[in-house]
Amino acid sequence: MPGRLPRAILATLLTSVVAVSLVACTGGDTPSPAPVPSASASPTGVAVPTSGAAPIFVAGGSAAENLPVFDALNNATIASSAASNTTPDGKAFTSALRDGGFDVSAMQVTPDVTTVGVKADTVQFSVALGGQCLIGQYGFGEYHSLVAPLLGTGRCLVGETRTIDW
After folding, report:
1. What is the rounded CA–CA span in Å between residue 147 and residue 141?
2. Signal peptide position in this chain (predicted)?
3. 64 three-class SS
4. What is the pTM of this model?
């Protein structure tokens, strides 16, 4: 029968495609530590208060202990910018974090302008704290944060960052 594959060949091909698809879905051999995402962001990116007390910076505390204040400061920056009909930039986020008690020398922030001179869609910012990183990202109207391990470089962000000199 020209143009038709025998059932045995078709079954073998189908089995091979399924097997290759399943292999492609498996992870690597070495599991990496799972980041601790922030649970405070609502679908609009603004923090949903879980209690009446504002979080307070814990000097000498861990990244996980300071994640609530990190999120609160960043969400306040977003709300303040929204009230003035602007979009927060790296300077706004890092300035608020500095004013909230975080060490500016432990921070990183990505450029607000791309290499072709247009406003970046997202900004990432981080604070190295106790061998871990608080990492925040804002873009497209959404804020996300997590606690992640410090990179082997001693930094939190990969790629180009800018000098925080304000």
Report:
1. 21
2. 1-24
3. helix
4. 0.69
